[in-house]
Amino acid sequence: MTEVSGRILTADGWIEGRVVWADDRISAIIPADVAHDAPLILPGFIDLHCHGGGGADLMEGGDAAAKIAALHARYGTTAMLATTMTDTVPAITRAMADTGAVMGAQAADQAAILGVHLEGPFIDATRLGAQPDEAIPASIALIDTFHALAPIRVVTMAPEADPDGTVTAYLDGKGIRVQIGHSSCDYETAAAAFASGRHGVTHMFNAMTGLHHRAPGIVGAALAHAQHAELIPDLLHVHPGAIRAALRAIPNLYAVTDACAAAGMPDGDYRLGTQPVRRCGNGVRLADGTLAGSCLTLLEAFRNLVSIGLSVEEASARTSTIAADYIGLWDRGRIAVGGVADMVVLGTDDFHLQHVIMRGVMAEGANP
């Protein structure tokens, strides 16, 4: 048995005391007096959209997924979806196969890779953002090929790539979440997609039709109808005011990093798939200035959400619990008896990351 003491954000609210676990499962939460400066114990962060980190990019294949999972674990991410990007079918196939191999032999210092977020190639070629120009129509055959190599949990797909909804219906039937992203569709098309209740939004506000009062676009449809959406809270991709608007309108808004290889690394040149990118400060861009993913960690995302006015409880939910619920994982994203022992231990004043507990293994945290 192992334990940690502090102010614990449980599934039922705050408790002062101890969390006890055996192997990888929480066995008890015991109320007890703690010091006034005792640390905060929160659910481990969960990232459903992450391309890279520590100098590695998922599309490189090989052991890139392992390097990415290890880097983000140092910053409190205890579980994640490895995220592909638009590329040739052979390149995506290789990335999927190598990610599947990594998933079968993960080390204790790596965030659990829960599956894959397939971002592209089923997107609109006019809304590539930082994605390479390899967009193609959606295909059930390709979905099956990729899914056989590594489990797909989320697919970003433009409605334009699946105009009759056949592939979307197929994914829905398999329990795979479909998200609108990298799309130029109008309000009416997006609203119809959200009517199913299963459609989320990929990096809300970015690479999609914006809100105009006579042409509300995807943003307007999401604010009016979406139940779920991911958002990159690096305070560069989205203004804090827009974040606040989305928080009021979309019940299950959750944070993602959309991190590339530059996450956890110094300023310099990196790659996002086939694209050369440069990190400068807290931004990552193509040569033409286009934002190219981020260098965000979920620890920074949590701090940023608190800095714009969210409570610790809400910031924790939006960097952990909501993401777990979205992909149907009820034993992650919360501190509860029987749940996976995934937690972060933070200082009370500055949210200094003291420890990361992953599947019952405690490690020191890194702090940017």
UniProtKB/TrEMBL annotation:
It comes from the Bacteria. Its cofactor is a divalent metal cation. Its EC number is 3.5.1.25. InterPro entries: Amidohydro-rel, GlcNAc_6-P_deAcase, Metal-dep_hydrolase_composite, Metal_Hydrolase. Binds 1 divalent metal cation per subunit. The active site is at D258 (proton donor/acceptor). Pfam families: Amidohydro_1 (PF01979). Residues 41-360 form the Amidohydrolase-related domain. Substrate binds at A130, N206, A207, R214, H237, L291, A292, G293. Zn(2+) binds at E119, H182, H203. GO terms for molecular function: metal ion binding; N-acetylglucosamine-6-phosphate deacetylase activity. GO terms for biological process: N-acetylglucosamine catabolic process. Keywords: Carbohydrate metabolism, Hydrolase, Metal-binding. Belongs to the metallo-dependent hydrolases superfamily. NagA family. This is N-acetylglucosamine-6-phosphate deacetylase. The gene is nagA.
